[in-house]
Amino acid sequence: MDRDALRKTYRGYIDCLNARDWQRLDRFVGAAVRYNGAVIGLEGYRAMLRADVAAIPDLRFEIATLVADPPVVASRLLFDCTPVGMLFGLPVNGRHLHFEENVFYTFADGRIDDVRSIIDKAAIAAQL
Amino acid sequence: MDRDALRKTYRGYIDCLNARDWQRLDRFVGAAVRYNGAVIGLEGYRAMLRADVAAIPDLRFEIATLVADPPVVASRLLFDCTPVGMLFGLPVNGRHLHFEENVFYTFADGRIDDVRSIIDKAAIAAQL
């Protein structure tokens, strides 16, 4: 994929997440996807997203910066949400939060094959 | 700058940091640079790096992934180091640590103008 195609695919992936369209996730995420070094596979990825939405019913992914340099996409994601209970081991309990994630995705055969994500958990702790 | 020039400039910046060549930092960092939303300027940036090296005498920046999409560079940085005392409010006290930083740099006029960094502080806490 060239840079524009990669960008377009990534935006499609984010739209898929925001639509909670888990069945369509296989168009964007590879069968043997790795997340922060662990092979979790497509089913593990789907389960992770379902768990995220259970913890954060109003979860919405907003792209602040999108950088495409095939085969890698880097994205700054913003979250403005209301987790219902615990989040990352922190007792959020319905408080409204803003936080960010800086994340790199390596694509293979048109799908996300490797994810390296850091979420700013310290910013969350500081808001509690 | 095109993608290759941006990549080369960024590698020059990292070499400058690893050489502790603070006088040459103005070749890479703009006078009014912002760091995570705050204008700290070149002098503030230099002071931040000096403080980092005081806290981590063996600090070395290693690029794991470098993504260039003008005017933005995104980088995954790896650290393998031995902070002497406190680090990010955590009592490291000479323990050897591995941690990562996912960081975006927006360039203007050939220099870094805006930095958005997330360091994996939770990974550091987990190693203590």
**Total number of helices of chain A:** 3
Helix content of chain A: 25-40%
Q: Cα distance, first to last residue of chain A?
A: 42 Å
Low-confidence stretches of chain A: none
What structural class do the secondary elements of chain A suggest? alpha+beta
How large a portion of the residues of chain A is in β-strands, by DSSP E? 35-45%
Greatest interface and its participating residue counts: A-B, 23 and 23 residues
How many strands in all of chain A? 8
Q: Write the H/E string of chain A, N to C.
A: HEEHEEEEEEH
* Average pLDDT level of chain A: 96
Radius of gyration of chain A: 14 Å
Main sheet strand line-up of chain A? 2-1-8-7-4-3
Shape of chain A: globular
Multimeric status of the protein: homodimer
The biggest sheet of chain A amounts to: 6 strands, mixed
Keywords (chains A, B): Plasmid
Organism (chains A, B): Alloyangia sp. H15
Protein name (chains A, B): Ester cyclase
